[in-house]
Each structure stands twice: as structure tokens, then as C-alpha cells.
Amino acid sequence: MKYSRLTKEQFEELHQEFINFLASQSITAAEWEEIKKEQPKVAEDELDVFSDLIWEGVLDKVSFLEHFSSNQMYLFNITEVEINLIAVTIENEGIDITTRDGYNWLQQNLMADTVNMYTSSKVLSGDRNKDIFALIQQGAVITKGDLFSYFDKVINT
């Protein structure tokens, strides 16, 4: 398995897609029930293959990720060849940017001495999707890139 198995909730959400996946392998509902009972390892393998297919489809479309902690914000723009990072760090222990008040403070104090912004770029490895998945496993979430675009303008003006 290349990524991680989908959760029970994700499988439930993708129930119809999983049925289509099984149908594409000429596995009927009755055969699937039999496989689960008689060949649990084969059933596990099918769940893993389906999970990887779903992850590949999702990761192929990812262009932006965000990762927040109490005093840091990492904004990623992923192209076909590199990951561009905008990092914002807060050197004020009383501020937690994961809260509404903390984030509002950041918006009003972007140019304060306690706010540091920097950029970096890194060439992707041979497997773009695996690089993206590693960031997601570390807590990054897929976004539309609004924050990246905003901070990119702030840094470059």
C-alpha cells in the first residue's frame, strides 16, 4: 500500500465508488461478501488498492496545503516540479493563531517585529504525490490557496 487505508467513514462516503471499483473487477455484491468471509486477506488487499486509487486521484489535483500550529503557519504551493513554502512564525507566546483572537491579532500585526515571514522552495522527489501525502500525514490540509496568494502578495510588495 502506497498511502493509507481510507477510514470507515471515508469508505461509507465513497460507497458507490467502491461498488463501481468492485464491478470493474467483475466482483458482485454476493462475491464480495464471500471474499470478506472466506478470504479476509484478499478483501484487505482490495480495500488497500481502492484506497490508493482514491488517494492518487485526490493528490493529483492538489496545488495548495496549509499547516497551522499555535505560533506557526506553513503555506505550500505545489507545482509539478517543486514545493514553494511561505512560513509565518509568531514570537509572542501569548498569541495562538489557531484561535480566532490569535488569527485576528496576526492580521492586525503582520508587520510587527514579533512576526517573521520567510519563503523557501524545494524540488519534489520523483513521486510528487508521495511528497504531498507526507505533508498531509504531518497535519497539512488541502486548500484552494487563498492564504498562500494573500501572503505571496504581502511578501512580494
Mean pLDDT: 93
Low-confidence stretches: none
Name the helicity range. Answer: 40-55%
What percent of residues are in strands?
A: 15-25%
Alpha-beta content class: alpha+beta
Spatial ordering of strands, largest sheet: 4-3-2-1-5
Q: Work out the helix count.
A: 7
Distance between the termini: 44 Å
Count of separate structural domains: 2
Compute the CA-based radius of gyration.
21 Å
Shape: elongated
Compute the number of strand runs.
5
Query: What sequence of helices (H) and strands (E) makes up the elements?
Result: HHHHEEEHEHEH
Largest sheet: 5 strands, antiparallel
Pfam family, one: DUF6495
InterPro entries: DUF6495
Protein name: DUF6495 family protein
Description:
InterPro entries: DUF6495. This is DUF6495 family protein. The protein is α+β, with helices and mostly antiparallel strands. The chain has two domains: 8-60; 64-155, no CATH class. Helices cover 48% and strands 21% of the residues. The chain has helices at 8-13, 15-24, 29-38, 40-60, 100-108, 128-137, 146-155; strands spanning 64-68, 72-78, 82-90, 115-123, 141-143. A hairpin with a 3-residue loop joins strand 2 (72-78) and strand 3 (82-90). Helix 3 packs across helix 4 (40-60). 11% of the residues are buried. The model has no long low-confidence stretch (mean pLDDT 93).
Task: Please give a handful of descriptors for the protein shown.
DUF6495 family protein; alpha+beta; 157 residues; 2 domains; DUF6495
Write the layout of secondary structure elements.
Elements: H1 8-13, H2 15-24, H3 29-38, H4 40-60, E1 64-68, E2 72-78, E3 82-90, H5 100-108, E4 115-123, H6 128-137, E5 141-143, H7 146-155
Antiparallel strand pairs: 1-2, 1-5, 2-3, 3-4
Helix pairs in contact: 3-4
